[in-house]
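lol forgot to send this yesterday, sorry. C-alpha cells for the thing we talked abt
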C-alpha cells in the first residue's frame, strides 16, 4: 500500500476558496480531531473524491460539496483537491489534482468538474522533474486506485465508507453479495 504524504484543499465546503489548506499525514497513523463543523468529514470526503472521483452522498451532485458562491459574494467558486503520495516501494511519487467549479445562476447553481491531472514526480536528480501521466477524470478514477495498491471497491466500501452507508453489511442479500463480489474481485476469478 502506498503512503499519503499531504493533501491540499481549496474551496470545498468549509475550506476557503482563496487559500489552500494543507493537511499532512503522519506514519503509521494520522488522527483527525476537532469540534463539530471544523472540516473532519470534509477532509475524509476530499480523500475519497481525489482517489475515486466519487462525490459524497447528499452533496446534490457536487453542488453542496464546493463552497457556496453566495457566501463568497461571487458568481463562481473554483475548488481543488490535491494529493501527494508515494508508491509502497517508495520509488515513485505522484501528485493527483482534481479541479471543480460551482457557478451561481438565477435559477440555481451548476457544478462542473473542470479537469483532473496526475503528475509523476521523479526525484532521482538534483531537482524534481514533473511529468503529466493523464488529464482525463475517467482515467484518474481507474489509475489512482491501482497506484495506491487498493481496489476502488475497497476504497468505496471499506476505507471511505460514508457514515450514511456504513450499515451495508446488514443490507439485503443481493446487495451484500454484489459488494462482497466487488471487494474480493470475484469476477476476475469467474472469468479465469
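and heres what i got for the seq, position by position
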Amino acid at each position: 500500500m502506498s503512503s499519503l504524504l499531504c493533501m491540499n484543499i481549496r474551496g470545498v465546503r468549509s475550506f476557503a476558496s482563496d487559500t489552500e489548506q494543507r493537511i499532512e499525514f503522519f506514519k503509521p497513523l494520522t488522527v483527525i480531531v476537532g469540534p463539530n463543523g471544523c472540516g473532519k468529514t470534509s477532509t475524509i470526503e476530499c480523500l475519497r473524491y481525489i482517489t475515486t472521483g466519487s462525490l459524497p452522498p447528499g452533496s446534490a451532485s457536487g453542488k453542496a460539496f464546493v463552497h457556496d458562491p453566495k457566501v463568497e459574494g461571487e458568481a463562481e467558486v473554483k475548488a481543488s483537491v490535491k494529493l501527494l503520495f508515494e508508491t509502497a516501494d517508495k520509488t515513485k511519487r505522484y501528485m493527483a489534482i482534481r479541479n471543480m467549479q460551482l457557478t451561481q445562476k438565477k435559477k440555481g447553481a451548476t457544478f462542473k468538474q473542470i479537469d483532473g491531472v496526475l503528475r509523476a514526480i521523479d526525484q532521482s536528480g538534483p531537482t524534481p522533474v514533473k511529468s503529466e501521466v493523464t488529464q482525463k477524470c475517467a482515467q484518474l478514477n481507474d489509475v489512482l486506485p491501482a497506484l495506491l495498491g487498493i481496489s476502488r471497491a475497497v476504497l468505496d466500501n471499506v476505507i471511505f465508507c460514508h457514515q450514511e452507508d456504513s450499515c451495508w453489511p446488514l443490507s439485503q442479500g443481493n446487495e451484500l453479495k454484489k459488494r462482497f463480489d466487488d471487494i474480493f474481485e470475484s469476477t476476475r476469478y469467474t472469468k479465469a
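Helices lie at 40-52, 69-72, 137-148, 152-159, 173-183, 186-191. anyway ping me if u want another try
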